[in-house]
Structure formats: structure tokens, C-alpha cells
Amino acid sequence: MKQFFTFLAAVLLTATTLAQVGINTDSPHEFAALDIVSTTGGLLVPRMTKAQRNQINVIDEPVDNPSAGLMIYQTDGTAGFYYYNGSSWEEYYSKNEVDVLIDNLQPTTYNIGDSYGGGIVFFVYDGGQHGLIAATEDQSPGIRWYGGSDTNTRARADGIGAGLKNTAIIIANQGSVDGNAFAATVCNEYSVTAGDVTYGDWYLPSKHELELLYLQKVEATVGGFSDNYYWSSTEDVLGYAWGQYFTSGDQGSTIKYSPGNVRAVRAF
Asked: How much of the chain is in helix, strand and coil states, percent to nearest 5?
């Protein structure tokens, strides 16, 4: 301990007589207050726990706060270099760490054809942040649109996301008719597990969503379709609902008890 104070006194004495202090050098850099020269070691800043760090204060300050710019190495919690910014302790991040943090803040985007969310992405918007996913196979090779009751369900919404609302409306209107499955129920009850996630929010696509799905069948982005008539969830008039022929691509209104193929979709 005596030797340490002798060394410290020598450094302080040198600092009062010279503009620069050098360790292992007789000619410290003219712009350096302290110039340490070594080819075998580095600068080791004080190491302490978070609790010890928080006890640091500067006696000659009017308040018990560390001086801005003070740096230590914290050994517990999130270990690393910390500096005091004048009001709180901040962790020091390297450029690579900052780049990783920035990358993690960027929204995840997807492209048409990507395998994601239990199926294949077939439509995207908002730069790929949102879109529609198709199941990888049909949920039925031929099933009726209604549940056995020829009523106006008012499931007539169209466009992106409209199929989800239509599906719920159809099931509420037809669900208790005869207990047998129909187009909306086989989509609503479909689920698929991908990785550790089970996706169960599938629905019968709206007329417009079905058209978007057909376009990706043409592009061979989504496969497994038959050359048959596929149901949409968009009702036309009493007794009829919209669907699409996956041979010609023509959309048409067909009587609800006719058998049609079904491919479930979900949104992300």
C-alpha cells in the first residue's frame, strides 16, 4: 500500500509540473493528459458489482452523483463497460452490438412464395410486413357452401381480410342447422403446427382473396390445387355464393348446396 501511494504521489507531482504524464515513456504525446505505452498489457479500469457502482459518489460535488464520463467495468448482472452520462449509468455498446440492436428493431418482412405461418405466403402489403398465407393443401375436395339452411347470411364482405368476417357470420347463421360440415367450418376448424407454434386462425377466403390465390396458382407459387370450382366466403344472393373455377380463372355465383373445393387462408 505504501508503494502505491508513493507511485500515486509521483504521478500527481509529475502532472502538476508537466502538461502530459507518461507511463513507460519519457515523451508522452503532446495532446494526451496521460500516455501509457505497453506492448504486453492493456488498461484495466476499476471492476465492481452493480451495487458497488451505485455507491460511487464525488465528495466535492454539491450532490452525491458521479462525474459525467466516469467509466467502470460491471462484473455482475449484464456485465460490461458502463459510463455515467451525467444523470444515470449507461452500458457502452460496440458498433457491432449497436448494429445488432438496430437489426432487431427492424420489422420482419416476407415475400410471396415464402413458407411461413403454417403455409405459403401468396399476397403481401406494407412492404411485406403483412399479407395472406394459404394452406399447403385443400381442406376439402368437394363440400357444400351452406350448413343446410337456405337463408341470407349477409356474409357479403369482399377484399383483404373480409373472409375472416364472412366465415364467422356464415357459421353463426348456419352452424346449428344439421350438424354436418360445410365450407366455412372446415376452414375454421383447420389448424397446423409449424415449429413450436400451432396456427388455428384460418378462414374461407373472400371473393377477392380467392382471386389473389388463383393468381399464385397460375404463377405456380402455391400448389396442390385441382381443376375444380373453389368456394369463397362471399355470398351473392339468397341460395347463391361466389366461387372461382381454377381451370379458367372465371369467378361465378353457384347454388350453395353444390360441391366445391376449399382452400383455407390466414392473415399475418
From this structure: 25, 25, 50
